[in-house]
Amino acid sequence: MNDSLSWKLEKLRDFIAKTDPIFVPSPPNSIGFHSYKAQIPEQEVIPLAAIIEKILEQEYPGWKIDVEVTEHERYRWRQMREAATKCLARLEAQEEIALHLGGGPTLNAGNLHPWVWEAAKPAWEAGNYEDAVDAAARNINSRLRPAPSIVVEHGVASDIVAPERRRTGGASRTWALRRAPRLPHETSPHPAVDCYAAVPPNADLVAKLALAPLPTIGR
To answer: Which of 75, 123, 166, 201 sees the fewest Cβ atoms within 10 Å?
Structure first.
């Protein structure tokens, strides 16, 4: 078991034990005003809850959806404690499987790039996992797409506009440009293509390349 998993298990068990609810009866001469409190003072639970919330965010992102809050909640920590209990069970099962069957590939939100998680988080926490993956792909694609701009060196621009004008001094640039229409049977002035580049590749292309071999492109 790695140190990170051991730490998470320890924190979850500690929080669950210290937030085991204690029944607080209704005040004298009243009915229906009972409540619950934690095993330790409220001000000591708050810093523990901050840590547990971060653990749940990584290991159980949809906990706020899966564990509902009742309309008249009488115990402040009930939802988080129930989520922590479920998360603990998952991690213990993960630990047991890794011990007896060997560890497989795992991934948690803390290991994801911020561009991925910041876009995927809202849909993921709502349980819309397919939308979360799509949002992450779109965010990465938009961030990698360069802003439209054209930066051309003056000498290069001159060569492109008028190839017959050669710069004096240094290496000259020759640009094979077609100025007149070309029939299909005529030879192209451009060099033969030996490499294709997608800059930048969009999310659909990346997915297709990942799921299937690249098809042969005839010249």
So the answer is: 166
| Residues 6+ away with beta carbon under 8 Å from 68 | 79
Report the candidate in 57, 210, 68, 50 with the shortest Cα–Cα distance to residue 124: 57
Per the listing, tokens 């209704």 go with 26
CB 54 within 8 A of CB 83: no
Rounded Cα gap, residues 91 and 60, in angstroms? 10
What is the pLDDT averaged over residues 74-83?
91
Average pLDDT along the chain: 75
Number of Cβ atoms within 10 Å of the Cβ of 58: 16
pLDDT tens sequence across 114-170: 888 888 888 877 777 788 888 888 888 887 765 544 444 444 444 444 444 444 544
Structure tokens at 84: 């922590």
Alpha-carbon span 24 to 64, nearest angstrom: 26
In whole angstroms, give the CA distance from residue 159 to residue 188. 20
Token pair in block for residue 159: 């060569």
Whether 1 shows a pLDDT value over 70: the answer reads no
For helices 129-144 and 203-211, angle between their N-to-C axes, nearest 10 degrees:
110
Domain boundaries, the chain: 3-110, 112-166+199-211
Task: Provide the pLDDT confidence category of residue 216 given band limits of 50, 70 and 90.
Answer: low
